[in-house]
């Protein structure tokens, strides 16, 4: 079977994007996804996204990590919105369904802004934050993160007893100033450091807001592959809402692969 795809990246987090709007029952088994994402024997990417028609929304996105596992992917969602616009699935503002529910999105000045699900649960213990922003994240704030070995650190946490079974994404964050945080991520399901993690950037921003007791944030997250922006508000019940993940989405090339 020949599969046409478009390769995307969102600040260096890269994806194989497949238009399934003419074949909504299109399926890839786990091995095919692993083979396609393989950096030597396949196309090579952190994840793979199927864009499908939806009765209720402008489109639906199914995200798969490089190991074939499913989750929500913030950068992938931003790339999916860019791709759906190219397919004329919506005009200016979009609504789409992902594994964690409905999202809204807009495209403005070349940046894709997606509304993330509200977050009411922030676990914090001895400087470690655990926050689920559509995928689960472990966050620690440290100085000089450029000297940190995020792969070794992240793998150790991800395979430690509390997370061995379900996995967790691991983020190290360094506060530069009130509106700027530098971060590194080890991603579950990729099992490597990625150049960027959208749900991770969102989780780091919310952890900072909790740490500083802020009710409104608009933060730039510096990642290996560029910059993301997270805006959010917190209500008097401690729930984070109006959470937006904003950043670029870049189509790199179109290709075809023989499966
Ligand atoms: N690997 C993550 C999903 C992708 C997260 C990341 N690529 C993003 O942009 O949110 C997980 O399985 O939890």
UniProtKB/TrEMBL annotation:
It catalyses: (2S,6S)-2,6-diaminopimelate = meso-2,6-diaminopimelate. PANTHER family: DIAMINOPIMELATE EPIMERASE, DIAMINOPIMELATE EPIMERASE, CHLOROPLASTIC. Its EC number is 5.1.1.7. One of its GO terms (molecular function) is diaminopimelate epimerase activity. GO terms for biological process: lysine biosynthetic process via diaminopimelate. This is Diaminopimelate epimerase. The keyword Cytoplasm applies. The active site is at 73 (proton donor), 197 (proton acceptor). Substrate binds at residues 13, 65, 74-75, 169, 187-188, 198-199. It comes from Brumimicrobium salinarum. The record marks 137, 187 as: Could be important to modulate the pK values of the two catalytic cysteine residues. It comes from the Bacteria. It is an enzyme of class 5 (isomerase). GO terms for cellular component: cytosol. Pfam families: DAP_epimerase. Belongs to the diaminopimelate epimerase family. Its main location: cytoplasm. Homodimer. Keywords: Amino-acid biosynthesis, Cytoplasm, Isomerase, Lysine biosynthesis. Pathway: Amino-acid biosynthesis; L-lysine biosynthesis via DAP pathway; DL-2,6-diaminopimelate from LL-2,6-diaminopimelate: step 1/1. It is found in: Cytoplasm.
